[in-house]
Amino acid sequence: MTTSKDDESFLCLNAEPAEMDQFWSEGWRHFGIIFVRYGSAFHGGKLFSVLPLRVDIKRFALTRSQKRVLAKNRDAEIVIRPSFVDEEKEALFEKHRLRFDENTPTSLSNFLSEFPDSVPCPNVEICIYLYDKLCGVTFLDLGERATSGVYAMFDPALPKRSLGILMMLHSIRFSQKRGCRYYYPGYAYREPFAYDYKKRFTGLEYLDWDAGWKPYVSGL
Question: Do 144 and 20 meet the contact criterion of CB atoms below 8 Å apart?
């Protein structure tokens, strides 16, 4: 069980790749240039316990269901490039944000800096195109031996595509090719929540705020 963690934050305009690896290993995430870590969050009047997650890429293996996700998206085009914001991504964001009933994000600038490809660190976008239409994007920070998802969004009109899982799988594949040891998909909660799809990966670990990183066991 993770223990509670007080909210902490700091500002950082530029961090070296090895510094980013260290920040992530300590449970830090960033929104633009604001780095934060916290142990709990409220949704619907309920208190949820935060679980920082990472995938040990050496121990990762595709599950049967993840293989099915890749198979049913064989027609998708995957484009990886330095991150930028344009009207097409803004339009996708407006669709994606409607999935949330509360704590609804208002803009991509809630998550990305003015220069998302380089501030506070190098960042690439992994884009999913279906028949020339942008249907999913994940913004991925690049460290020295790790990568970290900053924000992911997808078209909620395509639930059978499992685009959230698909983008995580391509993030892991990209990280493997870079020779990374870890991929950080962001926070989930110990209690059941919409982020539970992040818990369905082999090689998954969570951060115990007192004892450090531990293998994640379903039902924790």
Answer: yes
Amino acid identity, position 88 = E
Which contacts of 28-34 are long-range, i.e. CB under 8 A and separated by 24 or more positions? 29/148, 29/150, 29/186, 29/187, 30/120, 30/150, 31/110, 31/111, 32/109, 32/110, 32/111, 32/112, 32/113, 32/114, 33/113, 33/119, 33/120, 34/9, 34/10
Q: What is the pLDDT of residues 63-85, one digit of tens each?
A: 999 999 999 999 999 999 999 99
Residues 175, 182: Cα–Cα separation, whole Å: 8
Domain residue ranges in the chain: 8-215
Partner residues linked to 9 by β-bridges = 36
**DSSP class of 2:** P
Q: Is 183:55 a contact under the CB 8 Å cutoff?
A: yes
Query: By CB neighbour count within 10 A (0-12 exposed, 13-18 middle, 19+ buried), where does 16 fall?
Result: exposed
Q: Which CATH class name applies to 8-215?
A: alpha beta
Residue 4 has pLDDT above 60, yes or no: no
| Model-wide pTM > 0.90 | yes
- Considering just the CA atoms, what is the radius of gyration of the chain in Å? 16
